[in-house]
Amino acid sequence: MAVRVSPTEAIRAQIHELFESGGELLSVVEQVARLSVRLTFQSVIEEIVCEELGRGRYERRSQDLPEGYRNGWQQPRTLKTSLGPVQLQRPKLRHAHAALCDQLFGQGVTRTNALETLVISCWVRGLSDRDVEAMLAEVFGEQAAVSRSTVSRICQRLRTEFDTWCRRDLTGIRLDYLYLDGSFFKMHPKARAEPVLVAWGIDTDGKPVFLGLAPGATESTDAWRALLEDLTDRGLGAPLLVISDGGKGLCAAIECSFPNSLHQRCLVHVCRNLIAKVPTHAQDQVKRDYWAVFDGIEAEGEAAVTEARRRAGRFIARWKPLYPAAVACVADNLDALVAHLLFPAEHRKRIRHSNLIERTFGETRRRVKVIGRLPGEQSCLSLVWAVLDRAAKGWRGLTMSPKALRRLQDLRRELLGQPRPSAPQEVIAQTVTAAA
Between 20 and 30 A from 170 (CA), which of 2, 161, 201, 348? Predict the structure, then answer.
């Protein structure tokens, strides 16, 4: 490199040479992408130096400017990025801010946030520390590899992010639907798998919101009430409908925490309980008749509930003489099974079960298989949160049509005593549709 050619000019020259080389297009584009990252970082360094000194390269200093000046270049520093290693030139400065360039690339800075995010993403998706190290070395070369110990340190960021998330204010979130469920993980020495309790919901704009997460020795009323009280203490208001399985502790906690909200039992859980008490040869027919109670109801509001009760009466009359214990699963919980029918018809199939969060828990359990027993409660919660938080970005919301918004507002007024919005707000609300 010529003495008077700046690093940025040299990088631009390399880019031009690549385009004129006639090499394979894909290979050229990849190399240009890496050089472009290097060019961006190098340009920022030189721009900061010019701002500090008050003049460009080879410009004379006027009397009113600082006394500092350039004095060549330090040893190049390699920065690990998500596009591979990038080598950067750092200028030497005399009589100027000594740690100027270290603001960007200090003694301990060897990688970008994008690379750290990539490491965390790979780890959350099931790769072990050793796998992440090998993957980076394979894709970006040995220079860009991150050691297993470094991977572990990077992933400690999850704990900080999780702690911040647990303390965030929920006052601005207004829910229509709240889902509650738990999944079991081994997180304490010499203990069986214990539940991690999770709350997520769909807000009044139809968007999914991941709300809360807490440990529990069991899915007891006290454990669930502690989670729900934490959410309400941080400003979460009562939802219109709470969807859950039929755990007695959970049902009792919902009744205590949200006495004015409706409660929907997960139809899938009830179906499993029902079929478990029916002989194999009759299971298919019983299952078809069970779902026929709730499917295909076109009526709205109370009329829909009345129709479901009429169908349920036929179901009970047919199967109770043969399988009374199985039919009791439906008869004893009928009020909680038909609550979803009071809500907009286009929402019913999404709010009558908690399957979405159960599928996400499946992803979490696959991630945990790599680790075996988790090293502790905090590590378990951080990992479960990280998997669910990233999965939540792909959750689908609900479409809020004008008709659905009117129905939800009527329910909000009836159940929670909230007044109807003023005309301008209602007109604005009717234009909102939401889907993830």
Answer: 348
Q: Compute φ and ψ for 42, nearest 5 degrees.
A: -65, -40
Looking up tokens 């828990």, which residue turns up? 361
241-244 and 175-185 as β-strands: parallel, antiparallel, unpaired?
A: parallel
Q: How far apart are CA 180 and CA 254, in angstroms?
A: 9
CB distance 111 to 104 below 8 Å: no
Q: List b or e across 203-229, with b for residues whose CB sees 16 or more CB atoms inside 10 angstroms.
A: bbbbbbbbbbbbbbeebbbebbbebbe
Evaluate if residue 211 carries a pLDDT over 90. yes
Specify the range with the lowest mean pLDDT, choosing from 10-19, 282-291, 403-412: 10-19
Q: What are phi and psi of 94, to 5 degrees?
A: -115, 140
Mean pLDDT, the chain, rounded, equals 78
Q: Are strands 262-265 and 241-244 parallel, antiparallel or unpaired?
A: parallel
- 0.90 exceeded by the pTM? no
Whether the Cβ atoms of residue 40 and residue 12 lie closer than 8 Å to each other: no
Domain coordinates in residue numbering, the chain: 1-106, 172-402
SS3 labels along the chain: CCCCCCHHHHHHHHHHHHHHCCCCHHHHHHHHHHHHHHHHHHHHHHHHHHHHHCCCCCCCCCCCCCCCEEEEECCCEEEEECCEEEEECCEEEECCCCCCHHHCCCCCCCECHHHHHHHHHHHHCCCCHHHHHHHHHHHHCHHHCCCHHHHHHHHCHHHHHHHHHHCCCCCCCCEEEEEEEEEEECCCCCCCCEEEEEEEEEECCCCEEEEEEEECCCCCHHHHHHHHHHHHHCCCCCCCEEEECCCHHHHHHHHHHCCCCEEEECHHHHHHHHHCCCCHHHHHHHHHHHHHCCCCCCCCHHHHHHHHHHHHHHHHHHHCCCCHHHHHHHHCCHHHHCHHHHCCHHHHHHHCCCHHHHHHHHHHHHHHHCCCCCCCHHHHHHHHHHHHHHHHCCCCCCCCCHHHHHHHHHHHHHHHCCCCCCHHHHHHHHCCCCCC
Joined together, the tokens standing for residue 257 give 């925490």
Q: Indicate the pLDDT class of residue 390, thresholds 50, 70 and 90.
A: confident
